[in-house]
Write a structure and sequence with these properties.
60% of the residues lie in helices and 0% in strands. The chain is an all-alpha fold. The longest helix is centred in the middle third of the chain and has 16 residues, at 11-26. It starts with 10 loop residues before the first helix and ends in a 6-residue tail after the last helix.
Length: 50
């Protein structure tokens, strides 16, 4: 008999959703605009280290 576990958080699904969201946001940007986008995002959305 196989034991199934109900996931509270699906990390693969989350990663795919975030990848699609970011791809949509940067799809019409130039290379320079993309670099600026990630430079601005880098500090704001990071999870603080312990």
């Amino acid at each position: 008999m196989k034991t199934t576990i109900k996931k509270e958080f699906d990390s693969v699904k989350f990663m795919r959703q975030e990848r699609d969201r970011i791809s949509g946001e940067i799809s019409n940007m130039t290379h320079e605009q993309i670099k600026e986008y990630f430079a601005k995002k880098r500090g704001k959305e990071r999870i603080p280290s312990r």
